[in-house]
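User: Quick sanity check before I run a bigger batch. Here is a single chain. Can you write out its predicted 3D structure?
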Amino acid sequence: MYKNEPRLLKIFSAMKRRCYNKNCSDYKNYGNRGITVCKEWQSFRGFEKDMLPIFKEGLTLDRIDNNGNYEPSNCRWTTRKEQANNRRNTRLFEFNGLKMTMTNWSKKLGINRSTLTQRYYVYGWSIDKCLQTGGY
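Assistant: Done. Predicted structure follows.
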């Protein structure tokens, strides 16, 4: 047994439960939406073969396309913070060809997040004006 196999098995089991167990509290966001696990990953060994070589402790399994299935081409290991930016309800703002969350724009530009959100949601500024105007 590999060092990370127990953790990987836990992740695998949770993935399958979300997609196939109607009694699972997360089923509504996965299986009920049609999210499935690819044929190769129906067994733990198939999942392990693809994901163990790229696994790093402390990371979580993430689907790149939230509407896509669990399969090698659509899964990666990410931090919880990165995963939080990849949720269906995360709003992305496009500026100069880049799409990021308001939090990430705030960090990138050094403008307080609350300043940006107030400009956008309270004052109704365009995202271009919000991001091109300096911080306070």
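Residues 5-84 form one domain.

User: Great, the batch can go ahead then.
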